[in-house]
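Checklist before submission:
- one chain only
- standard amino acids only
- sequence pasted in full

Submission:
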Amino acid sequence: MSGALPIQFDPASLILLNIIMAGMMFGVSLTLKLDDFKRILKAPVAPVAGLFAQFLLLPLATCLLTWVLRIDPELALGMILVASCPGGSFSNVMTWLGKGNVAVSVSMTAVSSLAATVLTPLNFAFYGWLNPHTRAYLTQISLEPGSILLIVLLVLAVPLVLGMLSGRRWPQLAQRSEKPLRMVSLLVFLGFVGIAFSNNFALFIERFNSFFWLVVAHNLLALSLGYGMARLMKLPVADRRAVTMEVGIQNSGLGLVILFTFFPEAGGMMLITAFWGTWHLVSGLTLSQIWARQSRRAEHAQHLAAQRGAEQSL
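Returned file contents:
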């Protein structure tokens, strides 16, 4: 594969990564119910706006951006892969911390995870082909959408169904174990990414200036598209925050599973995808804290206004 960056990766670790991803999805799904899917039919505006931004606007904008800027094909494909993934499992936590509408966030995560079984391989193949600068490279890596579909089913759809069934069968156990399982999975995933970076430290330093700013800009684009779409649809503030987080927190872990399974030599794609897994947590936590502070100020102002009103009525 011409132009590929050499990545040191133990193929045996792929099993661990698949288990981590399945565990994260299982943990998220423990408290999911059928009502979370039905909620989109009852109140579709916010979830549909977010899913539209996530699965159409973000991959399209990423393709056009990498095309116009003539970004290195490997790095560009990494960005397109991340943009093709569904919302990350921690978007619900970020939404809760930011005083957003958790119900909207949960319903979007559930539906996007199922939709990703088809849309992730489809978007990656289509937009990777659409960009003339990545088309030749995509041909070299022998993309097989059917095989990617199978992997996505195994690490997203199957754990999601099993998690929902387990949560329904043992609801109290699901409530107690959902948060610990989610946090342990996150820590193990970050540890996995850290080991991958440490094993390729020289490459990380060499390409830092290229992939760092691309990830930061790309994540900002994702957050902006989510917020812009929600604002365009005139959604309430809480719904707006949920949509923004869902589009901006991408499931980069799924991207790593796809990469290490099918493109283990695509070092540039791995750098983009792995760093996304760290950076979107930083940006998401920062944004959620800003929103939480704004909400506290608004509540305080409302409290003062109510006090003044009560005093004036006396």
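Reviewer check: Confidence is low (pLDDT under 50) at residues 1-6.
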